[in-house]
Amino acid sequence: IAPFLAPGAPVVVSALNPFFWKDMTHRWWWTALARSLPRTAVITRGPDREAHRHFISSLVAAARPAFRLERKASVGALVPRFSRPLDWDRPGTFRERLEARCWKQFPLRSLGMFIFLVFRRV
Length: 122
What we know:
This protein has helices at 27-36, 56-63, 94-102, 108-111; strands spanning 10-16, 41-45, 50-54, 67-75, 114-121. By secondary structure, the chain is α+β, with helices and mostly antiparallel strands.
């Protein structure tokens, strides 16, 4: 998409976090990581689909040289997984309020279920 964007234009990429801390507490994640090590993503297999959770470094490398990484943020680190629809404008619980306030700050920007990367066209 680089040829279609003006220099300095932003691009936001949303991806499943390969190192989502809640998944890392399960044996299946470690098995998937070991099976995926020579690759650029953690590949998890389900009964009817396969998910490729790309390493951030591989996404950054794929974006070069046309884009440079400017920012990283994450959501889903503290809130219960798929428990209910979330309204990020009106966080209800303490965990939701904490995550809504700190989702761009270390360490929460690296621990959530989803990673958001902001690239800038060079």
